[in-house]
Every structure is written in structure tokens, then in C-alpha cells.
Specification:
The structure is a single chain. The longest helix has 14 residues, at 286-299. A hairpin with a 2-residue loop joins strand 10 (95-100) and strand 11 (103-109). With 1015 residues, this protein is mostly beta strands. It has a 22-stranded antiparallel β-barrel. A 5-stranded mixed β-sheet has the order 15-20-21-18-19. The chain has a 4-stranded antiparallel β-sheet with strand order 1-4-3-2, with no helix packed on it. Helix 4 packs antiparallel against helix 5. It is built from 10 helices and 55 strands.
Length: 1015
Amino acid sequence: MRVKRLLFYGALSSLPLATTQLAHGQTVRPASPTDSTARVVAPADTAASKLLRPLLVDENDEPLPGVTVFNRRSSATVQTDAVGIAKLAAETGDVLELRASGSVVQEYTVAANRSLVIVLSTKHPAVERLKPVRLLNNLSTRPDLTAGSAQTIYYNDLQKLPVTSFQSALQGRVAGLTINQVPNFAVNQGIGQPGADGISVSLRGTDEALVIIDGIPRPLTVFDLEEIESVTVLKDALTTAMLGVKSSNGALVVTTRKGTPARPRISFTAQSASQQPLSLPKGLDAYNYALLNNEARRNDSQAPAYTDADLQAYQDGSDPLGHPNVDWRQQLLKKSSRLDRYTFSASGGNKFSTYFVSLEHLNQTGLVKESDINKYNTTNYFKSYSLRSNVELQLNSKLSGGVGLLGRIQNTNEPGFGTNSILFNLFNTPANAYPIYTEDGRYAGNQQYQTNMWGQAVGSGYQQNYKRDMLADFHLKRTLDEITPGLWVRAIGSYYATLSENLFRVKTFAVFQPTTYQQYGVNSDQTNFSSVAYQGRTDYLEAALGYDHTFGVHGISAVVLGNRNNSVTGSELPYTITGLSGRVAYNFREKYVLEGAFGLNGSNRYPEGGTTLYTLLPAVGVAWNMTREDFLQSQTWLSQLKLFGSFGLTANDNPGYFRYIQTYFDSPGAVFGTGAATNTSITEQPLASRNIRPEMARKLNLGVQAAVLNQHLGFRAEYYRMTFYDLLMQRGRNTAILGNTYPTVNLGRNLYDGWEFQLNWQQTVGDFSYYLTGNLSLQGTEVLYMDEVDRAYPWMQRTGQRIGQVFGYQAEGLFQSQDEINGAATLQGYVPQPGDIRYRDLNGDGIINQFDETRIGTAKPRIPVGTALGARWKGLDMSVLLQGVLNRRRYLQGPTEYAFLNGGFGQAFEQHLDRWTPDNPDASFPRLGLGAQVNNYAVSSYWMRPGNYARIKNLEIGYTLPLVISSRFRVQGLRVFASGTNLLTFSSIDRIDPESFNGSYPQQRSLNLGLNLQL
């Protein structure tokens, strides 16, 4: 008998739905609003078989072991095995109850077919508790049998966003995890630049969380999201203890997809998105620029630069060469760009082997325009090709193994002058600086502006970056049941290599004064050269011995392993972390859980024979599943109640590059001896830190998890307190007498504490189902000690303040008159004018100076929030993700906020029209001036503005074609969908993007259309 499966694809609901009888005896369980698939099986005949073999999977096609299948007619009961299959006797028309974690999550009416694939959603609290918690080192455990703090996001939610980094897809979905899209100036990238999402990850206020991919630390974040089964966020000391000296900042555990022992499944997804910049500062036109520039010069007691005739020419456009008015933003940038993504995957297998293979191509274009004058492409773009293959083998009844391979090629292109350099000039060049071309068609410029932005975009050649990644994982596992049941041994080996090369094909060009044709610069031939931007490789080895067994009412799981992680970057010497780690968990009747873990490791960046080479980091936790107590068994409204807590030590290995060795460098300075042409000076670097050790932390985590109201409402709350100590920093009481910088030593202490809340609601009414989830975090931080210099007044002290606190003057508005100035304290050495910012004299000495600096706010968000909702009605599904932060401040600065920088020749923007004048005393900006104004551009609360925002991060609407239509095309499922990312933002400052605003490449709004085909 041949059985055909028809798949429905969609971002569907988390709730169980009633079965639907279709024509010809077919039975389908409609998928829930978060399900990515629902299976329909077409029977080959109508004979009632006595044996039913349903396969139960989640929306990511992962098997669900431990689901109880109960036949109401016969009272037969069976649980799904390790691969999600249940075997029981049933007849056509029998009603099966599918029970998870003791609750009925779905009813299924048996049709004539005997081969069923039933999808249950992980958003249902009872089903979620069946999904294993992914721990470190490829370990996992049941959620109710761990005391650790972890939260998982699955494939179906991750792949909704058209992004290049998996971290971007986590934004707003996990309590305590703050994802900010910020420029990375270290590598000259903005947050919306093709191939660069510009991600900053903070877990519970700490620095970057460690990325673990398939059990191994990896420097990879750019991913084909369809490769990922799940991302688990490990938050507390218990879940991260086995990382040892890399455990302090938490971990993001990425598990890639594996095959299932079922018929081959082939999937093809095509997506095309239009991207528009969210916000770009809008510069003034030439007339308003000249008008305000004259005003600024008068305020600075200078003669105006523009006559009335000049202003008239700018206003009427009568002299475009001598009085240009160029909208450089329109000239240089496109209104939109494209992102196209194509993904092909295949999975399947049998009891001997399973496989998952995927191939992805991504093509993302940028905003910089190109020109047909070139035979090559000068615009910015990003292209990538990636291939993933995961094969799992059951070599015999005791020996299993697997191979995971990843190959990826990435290519970026941009103008020879550089995208971000062009944007920098765009935000610093006024509209009247120069025309685009001279009268005879050559690039225009002048003595002040000796280059041309259009020439930089299309006449400077181009540069490219080629990046190649190769990854190979191997593992073998042998059960040792012949020694004792539950004993096993495992070995893992992995190799990762990356290479990034820059190719430059650049040239220079001359510009000419439009009226005199004075030449500046030269036209050069194209210069070709290349360089290695960076290269690295990592090899990883692990050997583990484990034990899992249940003795009646006692359950125990234990593992001890040794590993070695060796990485090489560029020409540096290897950085190697070696050691042991382990975990043990005991439960009694699955009611009381006691768990412990440890890491004992260290790196090779410390002196040999030193006491800090290896660091022992233990952690312990307890959990109580209260709903398994007899006194709560009668409380039917309460489906789950779990109390859990943990305490332990963690560490952050931050030794630097052999910081304990005193180093010296040559430099062209003072000359020793008589041979001036052959001698150089020797410069001593900062003093060596001979006794440094890893930075440490003590972490406490307490939590409660519950499900009530017949599994409709799920709730989770956690309290954490983390004291970081032995933080590496330089002493604040440095002295110049030494002639050198003090060494970095372990002396800092910081405190992080807070609350996290997660709420889930789900319900079904007939054919309509919906869900709602929300998370909120209250994050507090404090600097406990930092060895700061002696402060004259308590308001100047950094100790006791929030981490990341900005210090500056407290602004008290703007001076409105000379009389007000005469009676106020003023900045030392500066004579203020009406319209200048007035500062508070905190010490009352009549002078504004460093003794009046105090805390003015922090950019670290105190309250990150996120909300997701979804619904389904028959074949139509919808989901929305909202994300934002509260109680945050942002410091506005730079060329897009300050007018007339660069000695008065910089740009001014539309917001500067609302500047202070005697006729506009309630202005948003102080009086205008030229250059970096000492008073008005001093660090102060005037420029520290509210940074709160809420954003519709993602909205997706999909439609799954009915079976009667898709079956005509001989496909198992066909879904079309449309989605939008960053659709709408509610911000305290509406003229700029709340995540990026300092003149970098802007964040993008994406409108996406896609199709998924299942074969």
C-alpha cells in the first residue's frame, strides 16, 4: 500500500484544533497558528487496519517522544518512543486522546488510513514540557528535571524575519535577552549594511553571550535560518557551569536541524524583500543652509559668508554652477534595495540513518547608486552561498555516529572609496558645497571640498571582500549497557577554518572649480591589490563518559568530560582552553530534583606554573515539581507548578595577548647613538600584569513556572542576582611619574540583579485559534568598586552608579537674556551668549567645571519588553511580534545633531530650523554657532534624550492552499506568505531611528513576499 503525504506550511497557532474530515476518507488535523506544517495522509484503501503507527512531531518536524496516545473505545494506552512513533490497535472512527505532561492537548479521529503524521505545537505548555532542554556539550534533559534557567526559541519563529544573523531573529522573544542593532565602527559597518545586521547581544545586562553551535563554541552568527532547529538561551550558573572560564556571560546554544526516520521531505522556499531605510537625517537645502550659516557667523561675531544676492540665487536656482543646490541624499542613494533568499532542503531517513541537507543563496543589494559609465559594479551588495549537511548513523545496536559539514562563501562589494566613508561625507557636506559636474561634465569641487561625493560613489573603482568558512564535526557514541544499563561513552572532533580577503581595484579622480576650472587632485589609473583581512582556525576535541538510568522512583543522569578548544587568529599564537567539566542530576519520583555541575579549566595565556592556570567553578540547583504532590492532585485548574533555584560560580577568561609578558615596540622617535638613519627608539608598552586571573562571578537564580486554566495560561518568573568580581581594569590612581601606564589588574566589582517575567495565553474556539505571549525584564546594575580617582564631591563618584552611566553637566535650559547670564555660573574660560545652554552649579562656586559633572543617564535599557501574537482561521494564518525598551536614555551627538561642524563648513539639518533666537525662546536647539562649540557641545543632560521605543518588529500573513488545489500540482504542501519587518516605530525621538542615529548606514524596513513548496 502506497501512502501519500500532503503538507501544509504556515506560521500557525500553538493550540490544539479539532480534526476535519475531508473527501475520500482523508483526515487532517489543521495546524495551529505557530505550526509550520500539518500533515494530511491520503489513504490507498478504506479497509480498517488493526495496527496504527502515528508519528508525532512538533512544528519543526522534530519527533516528540513521551506523548501518551489513549484510545477511548478500547482504553488502549501507549507512549511515543524516542523517534516519536506510537504503535496501538485502532479502528476507523476511534477517537484518540493525545496527552502531554498529563493533559489532553488534542483529540484525533482515526480515518481509514494507517500512516499518520500528527503535528503538535511547542507553544502549548504541555507540549513544550516534552521538548528537551538543550544543554552544553550536546547534552539535553527534560524541562521538569532541571533546576537551571533556560529558554528556547524554535525554527518556526526564527525564520519569520528576512535577516542574515540568527541573533537578529531573537529580538523581543526571550526575557532578559536584549538585542540592539548598533553600528560596528571597529569594522566600519552600519546596522543595515548588506550582510551586516550590526548586532549587540546582552543577557541580563552583561556583555556578549557566548555562541555555541551543536555543542561547540563558534564565532558564527550569520546563518541560513532554515538550518536551525532551535536556539536555547542559558542564563544561570547551573546551565553554563560546564563552560568553565567562558561561562559568565551566558550562552546561546544553537542546534542545527537533523533528519527524522520518515519518508524523504523536500522543501523549497523563495523570498524577495524590498528594503527601505528607516530614517536618514535630512539636510537643509542651500538657501536655508546659507541663511542659518550667516546667523551662526553673526552669533560668533563674524561677518556673514553669503550676501542677499547669494541667498536669492540659492532660492531661485538661477546659477546652479556658482550657487549649487544639490540634494546629495537623492543623488547618492536609492530609495530602496532588495534582499532575495532561496533555500532548498531535504531530510529523511530510516532506523539506520537520518539526514538533513540544505542549500541557501542570499543576495542583498545596498543603497548606494551605480552608474552606466562603468563596466563594473560599484554599488554595495552582499552575496552568500551556504551548504549544510548533517548525517546521523546507527552503525549497530550499540554504536552510533554522525558527520556535520558546513561550507559557505560570502562576497561583498562597495565603491572604492567605501560605503561608510561616503555616508560620512553625505552627513558632513552642505547642499551648496559644489555642483555635481562642471559645465563641461567633469567632477566639480573646490579648495574647501577637494573631492566629489558622486565621484566617490561611481568614479573611485570598487573594493570587494571574499570570506570562506569551512566546518566539519564528527562524533561517535557507544552504549555500554553490557557493563551497566545507561552507561555510554562519546568522542567528538571538530575543525573550523575561516579566511577573509580584501580585493581593491581603486582609482583617484580630479575635481575642478566650476568657474575657474582650478584642478584639485589627479586622475589615476586603477590600482589593484589585495590583502588578508583576517584568517583563523579552530580545532576542538572532546571525550565524555555518561550515565542515564532510572531505578524505580530514583532517576540519575551524570556525565564527565574532558575537552580542548584551540583557536588561532591571524599570526597570533594559539589560544587554548583545556580542562574537565561535568554534570549530575538526581530526581525522586520526578518530583524533587537535585542538580550539580562544574567546570575545571583554564587557558594558556597565563604564566606556566602559576596558580590561575586552572579554575574550579561549581554550581548547584534544586527544583520542586509541586503538582506531583498528592495535596495538589485534586486541583484541576493547576496543570503545572515548579519551583527552582540555583547558585554557583562562573568566570570570564580575559587574559589579553600574553599580558603577563612585558613588551616593547620600535617607534621613530628619539635617536640613540650617532647613526640617525639606522637607529630607532624603543617604546615600552603598558606594564605587564603578572598576577592576573580570570574575572569571576557569583550567581543566584530563583524561579517559578506554572500552567493554569486547562493549559491556556502559562507563567514564568525569575529573580537573579549576579556579583561580578576580580574584573580586570587599570587603577584609577595612575601617576605620570612612572612614565608609563599602570598594569591591568583584577580589582573591579559589579552587581547585576533583576526580575524576568514570561506570560503565554492560548485558546481555540471552533476553527479559530490564537495565542499571545509577552516577556518583560527589570534589569538593575551597580558599580560596586572601580578604584576611581579621589572625587571632591559625592555626585562625581562613579562607584555606586549604574554600569555604563554617563557623566556630564546638568542642563537647566537656555539662557534667555544677558541679565540671566550675569547672575548665573558660567563655563570656566567661556563667555556665554543668550541662547547658550545653562548648566547647574552643583558646588555653588560660581564656575562650571569638572566639579559640576554628575550622572546624566545610561544607554543600557532597564526594561526590555517583547510581545508576540498569532492566529489561524482555516488556511489563513497571521503572526505579529512587537519589541521595545523602557527606561533608557540615548546621547545624541555627531554631525547629524550638531550644526556647522568642521570649522563651520559642515552640514546643518532640518531640526536646526527650530534653534534659539529671540523670537523663538522655546526652541529645541541652542543658538547656532560655528565648529565644535565649547559650551553647547559639552557633555550634558541637554543631549541625553529619552530612548524609549516600541516597534512592530515583524508582521506575517500566510495562506495555505487547500488540499484539493495543492494535490493537483502533485505537491505535499504549498504556502504563500507576506511579511514586514520594522514596519512601525513609536519612539520618544521620532526623527531618528531609536537604535542607530549617528550617521551610520541606516536600519532597514523590509516588505517580504515568499512561497514555500513541499514535495
